[in-house]
Amino acid sequence: MKRLLLIPLLLCSCTTTVEDPAGGCETIAQCKFGYVCNADHECIPEPPMTVIGRFECVPQDDIDSPGKTTVIANIGMQRLPLNGVVGCTFPGDGLFLVSMVPPAVIGGNDFKLNVVMPWAVAQQGGRIDMERPAMSNAAYSANIARYNGMSFERILGHSAGGYIQFDQTPVEGQPLTGYLEIPLEETPEGTVVGNPCERGMVDCSDTATVLSSAFCARPTEDVDPYVPICTAICKTDADCEQYGGICITAGASEGMCLRDCTLGCEEPLACSEVNNEDRSICWKKL
User: Fold this and answer.
1) How far apart are CA 56 and CA 21, in angstroms?
2) What angle is formed at CA 204 by the lines to CA 203 and CA 206, rounded to 5 degrees?
3) Domain contains 4
4) How far apart, in Å, are the Cα atoms of 205 and each of 80, 129, 201?
5) Residue 202 region, left (φ>0) first, then alpha (ψ -120 to 50), else beta?
6) Cα distances (Å, whole numbers) of residue 265 to 35, 73, 122, 238, 260
7) Are 91 and 54 members of one domain?
8) DSSP letter string over 14-78?
9) Run of H or E including 121
10) R_g (Cα) of the chain, nearest Å
């Protein structure tokens, strides 16, 4: 289907706005521009770094029956009206995916919101809380991706909490309505290893796990004083070069991509010698 290119237009200041309804709102159409209808049916200013709004869809294997949405996303300097196609599909591995896109190309790019959760949990209905993902394809998480046509370019941001709420118990093939309100955190450009990732995957990569093996390794309490660190699975240094790291195997068949101390270490990491290897890596807390 051919999509339109949005071209900015100069508008006169004489346009009218829709005043907030006295009895509360049901959709963003009842709120004035720059406002959105929240979960309490109040018109509120669009929150920064957040995706928010209502949607309708039919859970199915493919998007044969595109739903409707009045969702708005604000991330960085981008305002994305995600009121084009919405789908509620099953991507595999027992997951349920709610995705939506703008109705037209924006600034030469396509964008897509992905909200994923286990289908078994979605079937319970009600509110499902989102998390900061340690990996891009983690359950209970959301991201906004940018595309050039059909080609993936980068993930702009990951969920930093928030929730999705289903008005009914989701049933395959049956209409479903809901609301979501998910704060976002911007990703850095590119993929790095050896950096601390206190915020999870959002600190490590702007690409999907299917394209990059990078993830945020979160230590357990018994290995304190180590901190979460961006890494990837490797066998040789060649596996880590694209991320600017080296492979530390410690004698095992597989290891982790980490940062050589000669490249400098980001706080709170500090230089640490590797047992049985003549190299030092960024690892321990200062």
Assistant:
1) 22
2) 95
3) no
4) 22, 23, 7
5) alpha
6) 43, 34, 41, 21, 8
7) yes
8) T---PPPPTT--SSGGGS-TTEEE-TTS-EEEPPTTEEEEEEEE-B-SS-SS--EE-EEEEETTE
9) helix 119-122
10) 22
Residues contacting 31, CB < 8 A, separation 6+: 18, 20, 25, 37, 43
User: How crowded is residue 256: how many other Cβ atoms within 10 Å of its Cβ?
Assistant: 21
Model confidence at 5, in pLDDT bands (50, 70, 90)? very low
pLDDT digits (tens, 9 = 90+) for 217-242: 876 555 555 688 999 999 999 999 98
Give the chain's domain count: 2
Based on the fold, state whether residues 172 and 219 are members of the same structural domain.
no
- Is the backbone of residue 225 left (phi > 0), alpha (psi -120 to 50) or beta? alpha
Q: Positive or negative CA dihedral for 53, 54, 58, 63?
A: negative
Question: Of all helices (H) and strands (E), which one includes residue 179?
Answer: strand 176-186
d(CA 101, CA 113): 6
Q: How far apart are CA 64 and CA 238, in angstroms?
A: 43
The verdict on residue 13 lying in a domain is: no
Characterise 162 by phi-psi region: left (phi > 0), alpha (psi -120 to 50), beta (else): left
The pLDDT of residue 222 is 56
Q: Which domain holds residue 279?
A: 201-285
| Contact (CB, 8 A) for 74 and 48 | yes
Peptide bond into 175 cis (omega under 30): no
- pLDDT digits 0-9 by tens, 21-71: 656 898 888 999 999 999 999 999 999 999 999 999 999 988 766 788 899
Same domain assignment for residues 81 and 137: yes
Q: What share of the chain is helix, strand, coil (3-state, %, to 5)?
A: 10, 40, 50
Nearest CA to 116 among 134, 99, 103? 99
What number of H helices and E strands is found in the chain?
Answer: 1, 23
User: pTM of the prediction?
Assistant: 0.82
